[in-house]
Amino acid sequence: MSDMSLNETIHPKDGHEPSMGDYYALMKPRVMSLVVFTALVGLLVSPVPVHPFIGFVGILCIAVGAGASGALNMWWDADIDAIMKRTAKRPIPSGKVAPGEALGIGVALSFFSVVLLWLATNALAAGLLAFTIFFYAVVYSMWLKRLTPQNIVIGGAAGAFPPMIGWAVATGSVTIESVLMFMLIFMWTPPHFWALALFVKTDYGDAGVPMLTETHGRDSTRKHVIVYTALLVPVAIGLGFTSIGGPVYLTVAVLMNAWFFKGAYDIWKRDDAAADADNYAVEKSVFKVSLYYLFAHFVALLIEAALRLNTGTF
């Protein structure tokens, strides 16, 4: 099914009026929650104090921008979402929201969030938000997602920008601290999603999405998981030696990276026969660890910021 024919092939269910819950689901709330959290950390750990109202508006704009990206992604991907089991119940393929309506919402929220962020904070933060929306909706969703098995690596950049935007809201600049926060999420994304792809099995292949598991096989995917995890470790620990790091962060980073790398190593050492035998228990466990991993690092950064505030240092 071509994307251009979506408006002709997917319609809301007869008599169904979209609810607020349907529109909320269109904006990928789980992804939005991660965006808001990491952006807020980027703002709070910066050395420049921000007025609470300006900070609230800034985070709101980033959240709305993330929701706009989600709506545009769901509009474009409605054809493949209808095929994959884990996405078939999304608002468009389930017939709750019309594709054209999702497109309109996505475009309107994109302009609203970028313009308001510019007016409330600064041009750099607004520019980064605009680029993030464009990158996720156009570069990733419309171009590279269906073109290359490195789609997750490239797409990870969109999810990595929020702490950099939060930092820019406060400081109006991009520094080594914000770049490393970006790199932390960017390098974490591939092993996180490839662990998921290993036990989701045929969903991506059925939809024609060139996920690494489908194009290069599961053994190659396992190797990629450990390679990208190994590349992630120095980035995560290196952040601890910047102005926003410290002993609490470094302790958390060392422990979490040891845990995550051990999981990646266990995935690498396995084969499909072993994974089938225990119903992909290791892969599922590593995926769960990956969720704790990112949360723990950003909470540790918040703790370090609170300790600096308490001692009056930065």
From TrEMBL:
Record field: catalytic activity: heme b + (2E,6E)-farnesyl diphosphate + H2O = Fe(II)-heme o + diphosphate
Location within or outside the cell: Cell membrane
Pfam families on file: UbiA
InterPro entries (UniProt xref): Protohaem_IX_farnesylTrfase, UbiA_prenyltransferase, UbiA_prenylTrfase_CS, UbiA_sf
Keywords: Cell membrane, Heme biosynthesis, Membrane, Transferase, Transmembrane, Transmembrane helix
Keyword DNA damage: no
BP terms from Gene Ontology: heme O biosynthetic process
Family: Belongs to the UbiA prenyltransferase family. Protoheme IX farnesyltransferase subfamily.
Note from the entry: Carbon 2 of the heme B porphyrin ring is defined according to the Fischer nomenclature.
HAMAP family xref list: CyoE_CtaB (MF_00154)
Oligomeric form and interacting partners: Interacts with CtaA.
Protein name: Protoheme IX farnesyltransferase
Organism (species): Yoonia ponticola
